[in-house]
């Protein structure tokens, strides 16, 4: 019984879609009549040709700013985390073995993929059949 103390019984009239008496339908019906349509015009500033910024100049300017910004730091720097992988159910990727030599890998199956993959087959098979 304690688990049912927050259960509310909705057996009373006035709940659900069958209730047509507790609200005034005319309010809903007349709401469309009170809305007025008005045209909203969007106005954007028009730049004269002498005020327009050339795209190439803008990009060059931003590249120059980025080159001299000492606070930016290297975005392609390697980041190492001391706790990477600890305490998770995921296993290390080092357990996946790959072939150690090229001789162990065969890409002959690429030839069976058809002419659309012939260039890929040639790259991996070095012209072998």
TrEMBL record:
First-listed, main subcellular location of the protein, grouped into a coarse class: membrane
One protein family per Pfam: CADH_Y-type_LIR
Annotated keywords: Calcium, Cell adhesion, Cell membrane, Glycoprotein, Membrane, Metal-binding, Repeat, Signal, Transmembrane, Transmembrane helix
Subcellular location: Cell membrane
The keyword Calcium is assigned to this record: yes
Disordered, as annotated region: 1-20, 75-105
All copies of domain Cadherin Y-type LIR-motif, residue ranges: 66-124
GO-annotated molecular function: calcium ion binding
Comp. bias intervals (Basic and acidic residues): 75-86
Superkingdom, taxonomy of origin: Eukaryota
GO cellular component, one term: plasma membrane
Acidic residues bias spans: 10-20
Protein name stated in the entry: Cadherin Y-type LIR-motif domain-containing protein
Organism whose genome encodes this protein: Branchiostoma floridae
């Amino acid at each position: 019984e304690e688990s049912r103390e927050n259960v509310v019984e909705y057996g009373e009239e006035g709940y659900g879609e069958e209730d047509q008496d507790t609200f005034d339908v005319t309010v809903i019906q007349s709401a469309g009549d009170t809305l007025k349509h008005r045209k909203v015009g969007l106005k954007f500033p028009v730049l004269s040709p002498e005020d327009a910024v050339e795209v190439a100049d803008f990009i060059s300017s931003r590249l120059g700013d980025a080159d001299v910004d000492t606070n930016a730091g290297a975005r392609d720097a390697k980041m190492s985390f001391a706790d990477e992988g600890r305490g998770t159910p995921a296993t290390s990727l080092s357990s996946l073995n790959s072939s150690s030599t090229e001789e162990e890998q065969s890409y002959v199956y690429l030839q069976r993929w058809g002419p659309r993959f012939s260039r890929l087959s040639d790259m991996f098979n070095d012209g072998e059949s």
